[in-house]
Amino acid sequence: MSFTKQQIIEEAFGELALHGNVVTLDPDTLDSGKRRLDMMLATWSGKGFRLGYPIPANPDDSLLDDDSNLPDWAIEPVVTNLAMRLAGGYGKQVSPTTAMVAKDGYDMLAARFGKPQEVPLPTSLPLGAGNKTWRSQNNRFISPPDQQIEAGPDGTLEFN
Q1: How far apart are CA 90 and CA 60, in angstroms?
Q2: Residues spanned by CATH 1.10.3230.20 within the chain?
Q3: How far apart are CA 6 and CA 30, in angstroms?
Q4: Is the distance from CB of 5 to CB of 63 less than 8 angstroms?
Q5: Cα three-residue angle 67-35-92, rounded to 5 degrees
């Protein structure tokens, strides 16, 4: 079982030293943190960081007690980056250590989920010396692909 959304938010406020003895987190503060967490992970999902977090269609559909479904290796990057996003709203500066951990965590996610974008070869590129013209119907240049494959909005493959 993963962290709940509330646990992640409390840890992020802990990074800002706003949790515990200094400030008690009231329901409005927790709700604001939940909205920021949802927005941050929706943005990351749009960048290709699919972490399993349940992104709500409506902000009111998200509950603090919901399981985050985040893998263990993604908890710290989410907590520290959420702390970075929350800091400005509370007039706080994050420590250099928190900023470094947040950047390292984000870079780790980018390396893990980043992949080069496929680019088709140009049709003006010659086939090369090893290709026989009888195999390619006397075409001496690279042929365009037969079908384009695109991912749909839900991640399923669609052929055009």
Answers
A1: 23
A2: 5-113
A3: 7
A4: yes
A5: 110
Distance (Å, rounded) from C-alpha 55 to C-alpha 28? 20
Q: Which CATH superfamily is domain 5-113 in?
A: P22 tail accessory factor (Gp4) (1.10.3230.20)
Number of alpha carbons in the 13 Å side-chain half-sphere of residue 92: 20
Model pTM? 0.69
Rounded CA-CA distance 125/144 in Å is 11
pLDDT 10s digits, 93-142: 888 999 999 999 999 999 988 777 677 778 787 777 766 666 656 677 77
Residue 126, judged by CB atoms within 10 A of its CB (0-12, 13-18, 19+), counts as: exposed
User: How do residues 42-52 score in pLDDT, each as one tens digit?
Assistant: 999 988 888 99
Query: For 55, left (φ over 0), alpha (ψ -120 to 50), or beta?
Result: beta
State how far the Cα of 26 lies from the Cα of 5, in Å rounded to an integer: 15
How many Å is the Cα radius of gyration of the chain?
A: 23
Using the structure block, give the residue that is written with the tokens 């991912």: 151
